[in-house]
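Follow-up to my post from last week.
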Amino acid sequence: MSGPRRIRLPEHTVEIVSDAGEGAQKAAIAFAQLCAKAGNGLWTVEIIPSEIRPPPHTTGSASGNRIRLAERSRVTNAGNRANVVLAFNEMALLSRLQAQSLADGVLVLIDDQWATHDMEQYQRSYREVLDQCRAQGAKIIEVPLERETLRYVEDAQRGKNMFAVGILCALYSKEPSVLEGVIRDIFKDKSSEVVEVAVELAHAGYQYGVTHLDECFEITATPTDVPKVAMNGNTALGLGAIAAGFELCSMYPITPATSASHALSEVFEHLGGFVHQAEDEIAAIGVAMGASYAGKTALTITSGPGMALKTEFQGLAVMTETPLVIVDVQRGGPSTGLPTKIEQSDLLHAIYGAPGDAPKVVIAPSTIEECYYILSVARKIAEEFRMLVIVLSDANLATGQQLFDRPDMSKTPQRAPLDLSPVPPGTLPYDWDPTTGLSQRLIPGQPGGMGVTTSLNHDRDGKACYDSERNQRGHAMRSRKLAALQQTLNRPTVHGAAEGDLLLVGWGSTRGAIEEAVDMARSEGLSVSSVHIQFLSPLPPGLKDIFTRFQRVITVELNYSDDWDDPLITEENRRYGQLAWLLRAATLLDIDCFAKVPGRPYMPVELVDEVKRILGSQQSIEPSAPPHAATQGAQP
Amino acid sequence: MITSLAKESLLEVCELDTHTLDDYESERPRWCKGCGDHGVLAALQRVLRKNNLEPENVVAVSGIGCSSRLPHYLKTYGFHGIHGRALPISTGVRLARPELPVITIMGDGDCFSIGGNHWLHAIRYNINAVVLVLDNEVYALTKMQASPTTPDGWKTNTTPQGTYLHPLNPLSAVMGMTNVSFLAQTATWLPAHLDETIEKAWDHKGLSFVRILQRCPVFMPTAFGEGGLNFPVVFLEHEEGIPVHPLLRKRGEAQAHNHRDINEAQRVAVTVDPAPMGLLYQNPDVPTYEEIRWQRTDRLDRQTFLERLDAEMDRYTVS
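User reply:
Got it. Predicted complex:
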């Protein structure tokens, strides 16, 4: 058989990058769907500039996607350095080199128009960047994206992405007929003219690929009987909110949270609820608060800066014991920070960010599948405990796509009808159980339950009071609910052996990368395990017992910590990763952290490197052991 | 036989459905003696009784400030929230439970300053609620700081040499907003006018915005011409507006005003001296936000809901 030589692989990671607006993201979506339809497991991550149309042909303009596809149906993270990159220009390629996102022997497919471009400057930078790639061992295939596309359309900007996805279809030995179906589906709202050109270009790209490529890859899929869905974390949150029985999501636009509200807005009215776009972040939570107070637990979705604006209302929710759910899709901070990129820096803010002592529940999904289910959990806790529940997602989950089992509708929680049955006059609005702090909520419309719900300190009768005894009691009752919830939680399971040299502790979207790193390290004979924490407030039981079975415990987080080697950093002033702060306080163990702010997910390989580095310099977590700083020679 | 049945059922109707003022009273108000808040509370209780509302079906929402304590003294469901945010909470209640009448009570600092953004947008949403701003032209609970409506040159603890800016005119601000559907002004020293204004607001479907002038007897005792004694007002008169009783005419002149004419209302809204009292504007045809949202939202039984959600999953199903 003619055509390229096929190389079978268990998995591969591909990046597709263009200038913003050139359609690399669309190409990637089509390619990902093509792989998903073939049954490959996958995880995709968006590469997004912060501006809509940044200056073209610059590294800041690179926009696209990373796609990890595998034989196995379950892929839990974005993988390591990319094996293949398809770039529309050399600056987009350079941005991926600078991000250290490409493997040394990466296969580069790049549009060859720049080699002979009218602009001398582009010709030069094209040569320079390709030389740099070659020096790092890259294999380069120049492809006529622009030239070939111009044979079908007048404006190559509108079409070369389809030619590109055709080439990828050939490169990964996929079925062009399936690709055609995917493209027809993606462009179903466009005119038939647009659709036909897109299909034609994809076929042309495919033909170009099978004719010109020397070799291609084949990643076969593991057949499965269980139907799978592929979606990103924000869509999963949106559909999960509907499944959880929410009827109102009140929000204000903020990256990277907004697409969850887009997903909701698209279908919510058809499914019995709606999204209210409020005038600001404060009003967004205020409206949700009003709905919750009125008996219909509502949801607000935001990101870090919005969380900051919502803190006063969070205190109000806690004080009035109004069930409420906030989703914080975290991004890089502080301030506007890195709006489109991942960070896990809102943990302590979520737990402690509110005036006064305000106990809240904070939970974090660790996969896109969990994004779908977590809002049912959040709502149940919010209502049964009359508490504010914060769900910490992040930009990685938000825009990444993962394949998971199609949710079983019969397991969708029941939506309880509003209970407006009369209560005896004098029924207390905060009839706290002294052990658990739990009480039955009264809802407007319930005869006999009239009274004011106040932000002031109050006692069981709900009336404002200012004396020490009743202030202490109110605090105790609100706090005790957290303890009551904690008693119901399961001890987390350890991934790997239950004891050993090193335990990695993670939370949120880093789970897949951590567990994969643990598996890689263990296969090399290293004694490392991991544990993932889904409940951040309250923390689950058994942590100290789990930790003390390991020589060292280190958190892996995408937030800032001072490095021991940084100037001025001592044992006394070092700032730890946020989960490490919590765990150190909760367990009195000398827990260290690998906490950085790269603005991208951790790659399993870099975690393996860190594991090796740590295990090369053994330390113990026993409090009596010499602290890390002392051995680093830091000044006391 | 028939007579006795009718008598019995009449009695039953009377017993079940008639409320007295006591039914809307909870604890004794803790406002200062002479504070206008007392009068507004009483007027609200009267309008609830007049409409014979079940106390459990009414929600009073407030922010923070002296006047925002009002829900504590009204025996309905009440929500005494945080400074400036009464309107978002009211909007949430209306969206979730459109069957519950909502009264929103704010002060001038609460509504016009810290809650300014919510104020403007609430008028545009036009939720169906009675929105009362009890405007004493000063921050009183925090002990006399200038508010957006503090008169020119007045000395307060934050403006010891006198205020720097002209006071904000809430009426012209409201009349400048899209979707305004009801605007009235009244004062606590005109109890009958206050009662009738609140009643009118209650009967309006949409956001009934009422600015109530009231003197703070402690920090601004000389405001509003010593609490209305020497305060120039003009009463807006229309057969469907707030009645101008003969006694009122001693306080100020009456002026014919068509509250259906937005241009006329805007013109009147910008005049501050004499202060226009009565119904400035009413348009009963502006749709309410909750109406718009629920009209476009399907109400589903569980089976249909699950079927539709399942169908939604088809879009994402790949294998």
